[in-house]
Input
Amino acid sequence: MKTYEKKVFLEKDGILQITDWIEECVKDSGVKNGVAFVNAPHTTSGVSVAPDMLNDLDLKDIQEGFSKIIPARTTYTHQFDNTTDTAGHTKAAIMNTHLALIIEDGKVVKGDTQGIFFFEFDGPRAQKVWMAVYED
Output
């Protein structure tokens, strides 16, 4: 197993494309066939596969969609830092904080238009992304 860490800083409701970083780590690992586990070890962030477009409009739509479904409000039972913190916890729980990616012939298996993204549902915050690469 090889492990990797990327430190990131995202503004409120920030989105970061991490596909290139993941592919570089897989190449560095030397694993030809196996699995990569990606983890966002925070309660207000998540990782997901989404359209890897030339602009980030689709990704902003995802953030806006989450905010419509789970708005910031003062009536949450749990208020940790602020009203958006609890909404961020709920959004991260729905999106999920981890991904498993197949590695075949030394490359991450994904669709032609898929990218891998780190989402921050609160912020601004300094966060981390962790990845572990396992060989078959």
